[in-house]
Amino acid sequence: xxxxxxxxxxxxxxGLLGAALGLGACDPQAIKELEEGVSTExxxxxxFGQPERVWPEAGGAKTFEYNRQPAGVQNYxxxxxxxxxxxxxxxxxxPDNFRRVQPGMGVEDVRRMLGKPAKQxxxxxxxxxxxxxxxxxxxxEKKGFNxxxxxxxxxxxxxxxxxxxxxxxxxxx
Length: 173
Description:
Blueprint: H1 3-11, H2 16-21, H3 23-32, H4 41-48, E1 53-56, E2 62-67, E3 75-80, E4 86-91, H5 95-100, H6 107-114, E5 119-123, E6 128-137, E7 141-149, E8 155-161
Antiparallel strand pairs: 1-2, 2-3, 3-4, 5-6, 6-7, 7-8
């Protein structure tokens, strides 16, 4: 039974919202319980639940996408090798991945790299669509990473902005 399921049972129907918002709190424990090259696909699903999306990889591997947006500030990609064992567990909302998002990239490439965003907002007058991911900038400042897409969902530019839940968020574009 994964952490989320245990919380749902413990809190009952009235605690459903609280349990959903607290899902990210389970992640550090789940991560500690998993080991690359040892843990199986079943171990991953038991601790993280069913993935939001499964991405096929070369050679029969697959990557499970676990989103913690919009309530959280992390997204995880967990790769299961062709042998059924976990080969990688990555928190993907980080500066290295943000730098890899380049003008001209397609929306699926960005989604595969960063997971599902916290929000997607069309700006019709600017002819742009902005996807925003919430993340923590060290040591603990919540920020928004914005990817600005053209109408055909190609990256135009990226920008880092204030906390998307804060009073200063006016949107990108």
